[in-house]
Write a structure and sequence with these properties.
By secondary structure, this protein is an alpha/beta fold. It contains seven helices and ten strands.
Amino acid sequence: MKVHLQVEGSPLRARDSARAIAALGADGIFSFEGPHDVFVPLVLAAAETDLHLMTNVAIAGPRSPLHLAHTAYDLQALSGGRFRLGLGSQIRVHIEKRYGSRWERPAARTGESVAAVKAILAAWEGHAPLDFRGEFFTHTLMPPTFDPGPNPFGPPPVLMGALGPVMTRTAAAVADGLLVMPFNSATHFTGRTVPALRRGLADSGRTLDEFEVVAQAMVALGRTAGEL
């Protein structure tokens, strides 16, 4: 089991937070899109530690897949191949009233964002010309001036956060891994998440051996009850 802990989001504290987490013996860190940018702490941590890095999650809807692909590519390079891009949907009120973006079919839109990012990264790797045509995003132009070429450490994995069965099935169909929502239970996970996961993998013709499941838990640690 690999343990990832949340890094302090403030850019003024991210370096010290990343160093402290590394000193604890953790395998990696993740950032959360809260009061600070979700990517900046990982840029700082990439230079300070050998930890694995992950966004958990970056909100996909308001962002262009091209912006996400460029940031993921650069973090993968800066970290020496230790980055994973985790994308999620948020909820309607935040998307519309905080991000000022459109809320529409969140599972389909987030899934298509994942697929578009992967298509862009694949084009940069030279696997195929960029020709992504979806319901929400179209990416068909990549002149050499704007193509960074193959990443020296390979393309970063793209994971997707999910809780309900529709989002979970979509994640399993299009992403490289599932970020299991921490507001969960053993009953919900076994009764709803696992069946949806299996259906999504079947849709994509893959097995669990080709897919990463990242379980998340909120814990408080202390030597006494007063420290919790």
